[in-house]
Design a protein that fits this description.
12-stranded mixed sheet, 9 helices, 404 residues, TATA-Binding Protein, 6-stranded antiparallel sheet, single chain
Length: 404
């Protein structure tokens, strides 16, 4: 059966058109990317909190996906509640050091750098206030009990402000042309982005159906249900609530195959599609604030070059290939070095963190460590080979054994 399962028939040609250009990388990258995007761009992505089942006209999964693609909403404001549960142990001070290290890169790091603050969305529950007026004006404010962090993109300026430290981060980007996004990579832009990433995984190994209706933040919506057909994936299902009038995703929930709480549950509690006031995106550094100028290399052209360089680096990994297909696909490569045996780093905090995630395994391949979350698992063998994907530990061991 074609991946879009509904009461309406869909020709093989139509299904192939939807899948065109997505299948090569999406097979193993997208299940991982879903979580990556959730951590980095979840700021404007909506959550699942049904408050009713509105009576809406029937729609096929194919047409609902088209409706998402056709959505042209550029103006909105509202409040988003986000919960993320990867099942990671409490990082304590180690988490802070990781976040700090991600942005410092030297002595000029700033607590207002977005790459530091956005990492906080990778765990726990957070409330965000969001606003957008086209591709050149967006604002996301991460609310805390005693402080607030705001990330503002206004024209060619990107500002980050941390009220707790009274620090400001500033960088510049080119003005967009034809609606093209120009904000730095990793900065939240639209609710549609996370859903687009999930849809890249849709192929013949995927079931996509319309699973009733819901009401989110007072808006009537259809529920799109995306599920792997194969067993062995750690992903149970992805549910997206799509606004019935605008086609904009209003909720995104990713549940694991193991059951329990959602890995990602993010969504609007309030939303307004009227044009925000222009002053919403104005920002002037407060008196006495420390201002750190970011690298203008965050512009799309430089980001593109960085992505190309990363791609070249991946291609340089010995034996990079994909094992299996669809949601069960596993990325395999050779680091060319040793694995990550327990206690190897010499840092007790880091070793303790790795040990808390790791599970020693062995087989025909030898021995190694499986590092697990509720979504993505990776087996690193003691001779430096890596097997990673949104699959179970047993699937990784089986793949490593078969590769011998």
């Amino acid at each position: 059966m074609a991946p879009y399962e509904s009461d309406d028939s869909t020709s093989a040609g139509e299904a192939e058109d939807v899948r065109a250009g997505r299948r090569k990388a999406a097979r193993y990258v997208v299940p991982v990317a879903v979580m990556g995007v959730a951590a980095a761009t979840i700021g404007l992505v909506p959550a699942l909190a049904d408050s009713g089942d509105p009576d809406l006209p029937k729609i096929s999964a194919q047409r609902l996906i088209e409706k998402i693609a056709e959505s042209d909403v550029e103006q909105l404001s509202g409040t988003v509640k986000i919960s993320t549960d990867l099942g990671l142990p409490d990082l304590g001070g180690l988490g802070s050091s990781f976040a700090s290290g991600a942005v410092q890169g030297g002595e000029d790091g700033s607590s207002a750098d977005p790459s530091s603050k956005l990492m906080e969305l990778a765990s726990g529950t957070h409330t965000l206030r969001v606003a957008a007026d086209g591709p050149d004006r967006t604002k996301v404010s991460l609310l805390d009990s005693a402080a607030e962090y705001s990330l503002i993109h206004n024209g060619t300026d990107v500002w980050g402000y941390d009220s707790a430290s009274n620090e400001v981060y500033h960088s510049t980007v080119p003005k967009s042309e034809g609606g093209e996004k120009t904000a730095p990579e990793g900065v939240p832009a639209t609710p549609k982005e996370l859903t687009d990433e999930a849809l890249k995984a849709v192929d013949d190994t995927t079931s996509v159906t319309v699973d009733g209706t819901a009401q989110v933040a007072g808006r009537d919506a259809y529920k799109l249900l995306i599920k792997p057909k194969q067993s062995g994936s750690t992903i149970g299902a992805i549910t997206v609530a799509v606004d019935s009038r605008t086609g904009l995703p209003l909720k995104f929930t990713l549940t694991p195959a193991s059951g329990g709480a959602a890995v990602v549950d993010a969504g609007f509690t309030k939303v307004d599609f009227s044009k925000p006031a222009a002053s919403t995106f104005d920002f002037t550094p407060p008196k006495g604030a420390k201002v750190t100028e970011g690298d203008a290399a965050q512009a799309p052209e430089t980001s593109r070059k960085s992505d190309e360089k990363l791609g070249e680096g991946l291609e340089g990994l010995e034996g990079l290939k994909t094992i299996g297909e669809g949601w069960n696909a596993i990325a395999q490569f050779d680091t060319g070095g040793e694995g990550v045996p327990s206690g190897s780093s010499g840092n007790s905090d880091v070793d303790g963190f790795l040990d808390s995630l790791g599970d020693q395994v062995s087989g025909k391949f030898g021995s190694g460590t499986v590092f697990s979350t509720r979504l993505v698992n990776a087996l690193i063998t003691d001779d430096g080979k890596v097997y990673a994907g949104a699959v179970t530990k047993d699937a990784l061991v089986k793949a490593a054994n078969a590769a011998q």
